[in-house]
Specification:
It is built from 11 helices and 9 strands. By secondary structure, the chain is α/β, with parallel strands linked by helices. The chain has a single domain, classed as Rossmann fold (3-Layer(aba) Sandwich). Strands 1, 2, 3, 4, 5, 6, 7, 8 and 9 form a 9-stranded mixed sheet that branches. Helix 6 packs across helix 7. It is globular and about 50 Å long.
Protein backbone atom coordinates (compact mmCIF):
# COMPACT_ATOMS: atom_id res chain seq x y z
CA UNK A 1 0.00 0.00 0.00
CA UNK A 2 1.26 3.51 -0.74
CA UNK A 3 0.01 7.06 -0.44
CA UNK A 4 -0.92 9.38 -3.30
CA UNK A 5 1.68 12.14 -3.56
CA UNK A 6 1.44 15.60 -5.09
CA UNK A 7 4.76 15.84 -6.92
CA UNK A 8 4.27 19.50 -7.83
CA UNK A 9 5.66 20.13 -4.37
CA UNK A 10 6.15 23.13 -2.11
CA UNK A 11 8.76 25.84 -1.59
CA UNK A 12 10.56 26.60 1.67
CA UNK A 13 12.27 29.98 1.88
CA UNK A 14 15.72 30.02 3.48
CA UNK A 15 18.24 32.88 3.58
CA UNK A 16 19.88 31.74 0.33
CA UNK A 17 17.40 29.42 -1.36
CA UNK A 18 13.85 28.76 -2.33
CA UNK A 19 14.00 25.03 -1.63
CA UNK A 20 11.61 22.96 -3.69
CA UNK A 21 10.45 19.87 -1.84
CA UNK A 22 7.77 17.22 -1.85
CA UNK A 23 6.07 16.30 1.42
CA UNK A 24 3.56 13.62 2.36
CA UNK A 25 2.45 11.59 5.35
CA UNK A 26 2.30 12.01 9.10
CA UNK A 27 4.47 10.83 11.94
CA UNK A 28 8.11 11.21 12.80
CA UNK A 29 10.01 13.22 10.17
CA UNK A 30 12.18 11.57 7.54
CA UNK A 31 14.15 13.59 4.96
CA UNK A 32 15.17 12.03 1.63
CA UNK A 33 18.35 13.36 -0.03
CA UNK A 34 18.96 12.52 -3.69
CA UNK A 35 22.19 12.17 -5.64
CA UNK A 36 23.34 13.02 -9.16
CA UNK A 37 21.92 12.85 -11.79
CA UNK A 38 18.73 12.96 -9.77
CA UNK A 39 16.07 15.19 -8.24
CA UNK A 40 13.01 14.62 -6.06
CA UNK A 41 11.34 12.24 -8.51
CA UNK A 42 14.07 9.67 -7.94
CA UNK A 43 12.10 8.84 -4.78
CA UNK A 44 8.89 8.05 -6.66
CA UNK A 45 8.96 4.43 -5.47
CA UNK A 46 10.09 5.35 -1.96
CA UNK A 47 8.27 8.42 -0.71
CA UNK A 48 4.68 7.13 -1.17
CA UNK A 49 5.47 3.97 0.80
CA UNK A 50 7.32 5.67 3.65
CA UNK A 51 4.58 8.30 3.88
CA UNK A 52 2.17 5.64 5.11
CA UNK A 53 4.08 5.70 8.42
CA UNK A 54 6.17 8.87 8.51
CA UNK A 55 6.19 12.57 7.66
CA UNK A 56 8.43 12.38 4.59
CA UNK A 57 10.13 15.33 2.92
CA UNK A 58 12.19 15.17 -0.28
CA UNK A 59 14.02 18.47 -0.88
CA UNK A 60 15.98 19.16 -4.04
CA UNK A 61 19.59 20.15 -3.46
CA UNK A 62 20.99 23.56 -4.37
CA UNK A 63 21.07 23.83 -8.16
CA UNK A 64 19.03 20.66 -8.71
CA UNK A 65 15.38 20.38 -9.69
CA UNK A 66 13.24 23.41 -8.92
CA UNK A 67 15.24 24.69 -5.95
CA UNK A 68 16.19 28.29 -6.76
CA UNK A 69 19.15 30.27 -5.46
CA UNK A 70 18.75 33.85 -4.22
CA UNK A 71 22.49 34.54 -4.26
CA UNK A 72 25.14 34.51 -7.02
CA UNK A 73 26.59 31.14 -7.93
CA UNK A 74 29.57 30.36 -5.71
CA UNK A 75 32.81 30.26 -7.68
CA UNK A 76 33.95 27.35 -5.54
CA UNK A 77 30.97 25.21 -6.47
CA UNK A 78 28.77 23.46 -3.93
CA UNK A 79 30.94 21.60 -1.39
CA UNK A 80 29.33 19.27 1.15
CA UNK A 81 29.64 21.83 3.95
CA UNK A 82 27.53 24.31 1.97
CA UNK A 83 24.86 21.73 1.18
CA UNK A 84 24.81 20.62 4.82
CA UNK A 85 24.11 24.22 5.84
CA UNK A 86 21.39 24.31 3.20
CA UNK A 87 19.83 21.25 4.84
CA UNK A 88 20.01 22.92 8.26
CA UNK A 89 18.33 26.04 6.91
CA UNK A 90 15.67 23.96 5.16
CA UNK A 91 14.93 22.02 8.34
CA UNK A 92 14.61 25.29 10.25
CA UNK A 93 12.27 26.71 7.62
CA UNK A 94 9.88 23.73 7.74
CA UNK A 95 10.07 23.31 11.50
CA UNK A 96 12.12 20.13 11.86
CA UNK A 97 14.29 20.05 14.97
CA UNK A 98 15.39 16.41 14.76
CA UNK A 99 14.83 13.94 11.94
CA UNK A 100 15.96 10.78 10.18
CA UNK A 101 17.73 10.98 6.83
CA UNK A 102 17.56 8.52 3.94
CA UNK A 103 20.20 9.39 1.37
CA UNK A 104 22.04 8.33 -1.76
CA UNK A 105 25.22 9.37 -3.60
CA UNK A 106 25.69 13.16 -3.32
CA UNK A 107 22.88 13.28 -0.78
CA UNK A 108 24.68 10.64 1.28
CA UNK A 109 27.83 12.76 1.43
CA UNK A 110 25.68 15.69 2.54
CA UNK A 111 23.98 13.53 5.18
CA UNK A 112 27.36 12.39 6.53
CA UNK A 113 28.61 15.98 6.71
CA UNK A 114 25.36 17.13 8.34
CA UNK A 115 25.50 14.36 10.95
CA UNK A 116 29.02 15.43 11.96
CA UNK A 117 28.16 19.13 12.09
CA UNK A 118 24.72 18.87 13.72
CA UNK A 119 24.57 15.52 15.54
CA UNK A 120 21.80 16.67 17.86
CA UNK A 121 19.47 17.03 14.88
CA UNK A 122 19.87 13.50 13.49
CA UNK A 123 17.75 10.63 14.81
CA UNK A 124 18.83 7.96 12.30
CA UNK A 125 20.72 7.57 9.01
CA UNK A 126 19.92 5.19 6.17
CA UNK A 127 22.38 5.23 3.28
CA UNK A 128 22.40 3.84 -0.21
CA UNK A 129 25.74 3.77 -2.08
CA UNK A 130 27.71 6.48 -0.34
CA UNK A 131 30.87 8.45 -1.25
CA UNK A 132 32.62 8.77 2.11
CA UNK A 133 36.19 9.63 3.17
CA UNK A 134 37.14 6.00 3.80
CA UNK A 135 37.36 5.45 0.05
CA UNK A 136 40.62 7.37 0.26
CA UNK A 137 43.24 6.79 -2.43
CA UNK A 138 41.01 4.30 -4.20
CA UNK A 139 39.26 7.22 -5.94
CA UNK A 140 42.43 7.70 -7.98
CA UNK A 141 43.38 4.12 -8.79
CA UNK A 142 44.23 3.82 -12.51
CA UNK A 143 41.80 0.94 -12.94
CA UNK A 144 38.99 3.17 -11.64
CA UNK A 145 39.75 6.14 -13.91
CA UNK A 146 37.34 5.01 -16.69
CA UNK A 147 34.50 5.35 -14.16
CA UNK A 148 35.37 8.80 -12.80
CA UNK A 149 36.18 10.77 -15.96
CA UNK A 150 32.90 12.69 -15.68
CA UNK A 151 33.97 14.14 -12.32
CA UNK A 152 36.80 16.00 -14.04
CA UNK A 153 34.65 16.92 -17.04
CA UNK A 154 32.00 18.50 -14.80
CA UNK A 155 34.61 20.95 -13.52
CA UNK A 156 35.18 22.44 -16.99
CA UNK A 157 33.61 25.83 -17.67
CA UNK A 158 32.11 24.56 -20.93
CA UNK A 159 30.67 21.29 -19.60
CA UNK A 160 27.10 22.45 -18.93
CA UNK A 161 26.91 24.34 -22.23
CA UNK A 162 28.10 21.29 -24.14
CA UNK A 163 25.75 18.79 -22.47
CA UNK A 164 22.87 21.26 -22.65
CA UNK A 165 23.52 22.30 -26.26
CA UNK A 166 20.45 20.31 -27.30
CA UNK A 167 17.83 18.10 -25.76
CA UNK A 168 19.33 15.13 -27.58
CA UNK A 169 22.79 15.84 -26.19
CA UNK A 170 21.37 16.00 -22.67
CA UNK A 171 19.40 12.79 -23.23
CA UNK A 172 22.47 10.90 -24.46
CA UNK A 173 24.56 12.13 -21.54
CA UNK A 174 22.06 11.32 -18.77
CA UNK A 175 21.10 8.02 -20.35
CA UNK A 176 24.71 6.87 -20.18
CA UNK A 177 24.84 7.18 -16.40
CA UNK A 178 21.33 5.94 -15.68
CA UNK A 179 21.92 2.82 -17.76
CA UNK A 180 25.62 2.15 -17.09
CA UNK A 181 25.29 2.56 -13.34
CA UNK A 182 22.21 0.31 -13.08
CA UNK A 183 22.25 -3.49 -12.92
CA UNK A 184 19.36 -3.42 -15.42
CA UNK A 185 20.35 -0.88 -18.08
CA UNK A 186 16.68 -0.27 -18.86
CA UNK A 187 15.68 0.61 -15.28
CA UNK A 188 15.15 4.30 -16.11
CA UNK A 189 13.79 3.94 -19.65
CA UNK A 190 10.26 4.86 -18.61
CA UNK A 191 11.29 8.11 -16.91
CA UNK A 192 14.22 9.24 -19.07
CA UNK A 193 12.29 12.10 -20.68
CA UNK A 194 11.30 13.40 -17.25
CA UNK A 195 14.97 13.40 -16.28
CA UNK A 196 15.84 15.30 -19.45
CA UNK A 197 13.06 17.81 -18.74
CA UNK A 198 14.53 18.45 -15.30
CA UNK A 199 18.13 18.90 -16.37
CA UNK A 200 17.23 21.06 -19.35
CA UNK A 201 15.74 23.60 -16.94
CA UNK A 202 18.00 26.69 -16.93
CA UNK A 203 20.87 26.24 -14.51
CA UNK A 204 20.21 22.63 -13.55
CA UNK A 205 23.09 21.04 -15.41
CA UNK A 206 25.52 23.56 -13.92
CA UNK A 207 23.84 23.18 -10.55
CA UNK A 208 24.58 19.47 -10.53
CA UNK A 209 28.08 19.94 -11.91
CA UNK A 210 28.82 22.45 -9.13
CA UNK A 211 28.91 19.56 -6.67
CA UNK A 212 31.96 18.19 -8.47
CA UNK A 213 33.58 21.61 -8.53
CA UNK A 214 32.97 21.97 -4.81
CA UNK A 215 34.24 18.52 -3.82
CA UNK A 216 37.28 18.47 -6.13
CA UNK A 217 39.80 19.71 -3.56
CA UNK A 218 38.69 17.09 -1.04
CA UNK A 219 38.84 14.33 -3.66
CA UNK A 220 42.37 15.32 -4.67
CA UNK A 221 43.40 15.33 -1.03
CA UNK A 222 41.96 11.84 -0.53
CA UNK A 223 43.75 10.53 -3.61
CA UNK A 224 47.08 11.96 -2.43
CA UNK A 225 46.93 11.41 1.32
CA UNK A 226 44.45 8.59 1.74
CA UNK A 227 41.51 8.18 4.11
CA UNK A 228 41.73 10.77 6.90
CA UNK A 229 40.99 10.12 10.56
CA UNK A 230 37.66 11.71 11.50
CA UNK A 231 35.18 11.54 14.36
CA UNK A 232 32.69 8.72 14.05
CA UNK A 233 29.03 9.42 13.42
CA UNK A 234 27.20 8.14 16.48
CA UNK A 235 23.64 8.15 15.14
CA UNK A 236 22.21 4.71 14.27
CA UNK A 237 23.36 4.03 10.70
CA UNK A 238 22.22 1.48 8.13
CA UNK A 239 23.71 0.90 4.66
CA UNK A 240 22.17 -0.91 1.69
CA UNK A 241 24.82 -0.98 -1.06
CA UNK A 242 24.25 -2.20 -4.61
CA UNK A 243 26.73 -4.91 -5.56
CA UNK A 244 26.96 -3.93 -9.22
CA UNK A 245 27.75 -0.22 -8.85
CA UNK A 246 30.73 0.55 -11.13
CA UNK A 247 31.46 3.99 -9.65
CA UNK A 248 30.98 3.39 -5.90
CA UNK A 249 32.33 -0.11 -5.63
CA UNK A 250 30.89 -2.61 -3.20
CA UNK A 251 34.37 -3.42 -1.83
CA UNK A 252 34.54 0.12 -0.51
CA UNK A 253 32.18 -0.64 2.36
CA UNK A 254 35.22 -1.99 4.24
CA UNK A 255 36.08 1.31 5.98
CA UNK A 256 32.55 2.25 7.05
CA UNK A 257 33.15 1.06 10.65
CA UNK A 258 35.96 3.63 10.92
CA UNK A 259 33.54 6.49 10.24
CA UNK A 260 30.27 5.26 11.75
CA UNK A 261 29.62 3.69 15.15
CA UNK A 262 28.41 0.11 14.64
CA UNK A 263 27.07 0.56 11.08
CA UNK A 264 24.66 -2.07 9.79
CA UNK A 265 25.76 -3.06 6.28
CA UNK A 266 23.87 -5.13 3.71
CA UNK A 267 24.56 -5.76 0.03
CA UNK A 268 21.74 -5.49 -2.50
CA UNK A 269 22.77 -8.38 -4.75
CA UNK A 270 20.71 -7.44 -7.81
CA UNK A 271 21.22 -3.67 -7.84
CA UNK A 272 23.77 -1.22 -9.12
CA UNK A 273 24.14 2.43 -8.11
CA UNK A 274 20.43 3.28 -7.72
CA UNK A 275 19.24 0.66 -5.22
CA UNK A 276 16.14 2.64 -4.23
CA UNK A 277 15.02 2.84 -7.87
CA UNK A 278 16.24 -0.54 -9.11
CA UNK A 279 14.99 -2.64 -6.20
CA UNK A 280 12.31 -0.50 -4.53
CA UNK A 281 10.58 -3.34 -2.68
CA UNK A 282 13.82 -4.38 -1.01
CA UNK A 283 14.86 -0.79 -0.32
CA UNK A 284 11.51 0.17 1.20
CA UNK A 285 11.35 -2.93 3.37
CA UNK A 286 14.82 -2.28 4.77
CA UNK A 287 14.15 1.41 5.41
CA UNK A 288 10.85 0.71 7.17
CA UNK A 289 12.31 -2.05 9.32
CA UNK A 290 15.27 0.10 10.37
CA UNK A 291 13.26 3.23 11.13
CA UNK A 292 10.59 1.31 13.04
CA UNK A 293 13.28 -0.31 15.18
CA UNK A 294 15.31 2.84 15.79
CA UNK A 295 12.59 5.48 16.01
CA UNK A 296 9.97 3.30 17.66
Amino acid sequence: MSMDVDWTGLTADTPELGVHYVRAGRGKPVVLLHGWPEFARTWQHTLPVLAERFDVLAPELRGFGRTETKVPRATGGSPPQLLARDLRDFADAVGLSRFAIVSHDVGAAVAHTFALAYPERVSALFFFNCPYPGIGKRWGEPAHAPETWYQQFHQKDFAAALVGSSREACRIYLSHFLSHWSRDPHAFDGVLEEWVDNFMRPGNLQGGFDWYVGVSRLRRQLMLEGAPPMPQVSAPSRFLWGRHDPVLKVEWVDRLPDYFTSPEIEIAEEAGHFVHFEQPALANARILEFLARVLG
